[in-house]
Amino acid sequence: MEAKSIPTVPAMPRGGAAARGVGRRALKDYLELTKPRITALVLASAAAGFLLGTVSFDFALFAHTMIGVALVAAGTSAMNQVLERDVDALMGRTRSRPLPAGRLDTLPAAIFSGGLAAAGIAWLAVAVNPVTAVLAAATFVSYDFVYTPLKRVHSLSTVVGAVPGALPILGGWTAATGELGPGGWVLFGILFVWQLPHFLALAWLLRDDYGAAGLRMLSVGDPGGRQTRRQTVLYTLTLIPVSVMPSVLGLTGPVYFAAALVLGGGFLWAALRFGREASAARARRLFRASILYLPLLMAILVMDKV
User: What are phi and psi for residue 43, nearest 5 degrees?
Assistant: First the structure.
């Protein structure tokens, strides 16, 4: 008779390996709460403000600024996910995030978020200056506790949300100079206006998701896209005179002035195409144009600094 083969039983993972796997998953989830790509964009914005405001580059001050801004940006993004966990659960692109997916509990995530933001604000107050710390605190409060709940109430949330989105570049300026000034406010203005067509294009692409989640974005209550298209063109047109103000104030030279006009013209062309037809393809091109516009403008701004 043939001997029967004995089925093999898969080996159970050892306790230590299982614990390490769970730990790595938790670390990954906490990192995801901080939205690393957005934090990197905030850091780039603050770095541009610092470089434009500095006369004699201080590497230690720059490093302290970046550490504090990174902590506040990470805490702000994480707290946003805590506050919007129910909304995230209703949208296809966000329902797999750690909180709506149930991989993290709300209280530890909230403590983590608040702790990061508080540490960053304290770091800036001690190692940089109080003005920058106040701006960082204003960013955290206005984004998480004004803009975030307002999205459920009114489409003006987009304009309100552009304020905390533009504060990091002003914070970089104050970190270098120690004070608010015309140059810092002009940089704030560029970031503030840029965000509006950028986000309106994104909101048009995601209007079904936003509508399903009960968010009152302009695109949700604008079926034909008339208001969305009109405001997009208006804000993009406004960005052109605002973007050349650094040269008017003497912060930059003629190279930046010419580049701002060229880049602004290209951005406006994409906005006008979307203004004629609110299609997904044209909204996507406008969104991509906005992503291309900002880093190019900031790079030339820094390189052509007077």
Answer: -65, -40
pLDDT band at 32 (very low <50, low <70, confident <90, very high): very high
Quote the CA–CA distance of 108 and 99 in Å, as a whole number: 11
- 105: alpha, beta or left, given left = phi > 0 and alpha = psi -120 to 50? beta
Tell me: the pLDDT tens digits for 272-294?
999 998 899 999 999 999 999 99
What are 181's two structure tokens?
Answer: 């000034």
CB 206 within 8 A of CB 93: yes
pLDDT value at 3 more than 60: no
Tell me what pLDDT residue 162 has: 95
Question: Contact, 297 vs 190, CB < 8 A?
Answer: yes
Whether pTM > 0.85 for this model: the answer is yes
Residue 20: pLDDT band with limits 50, 70, 90? low
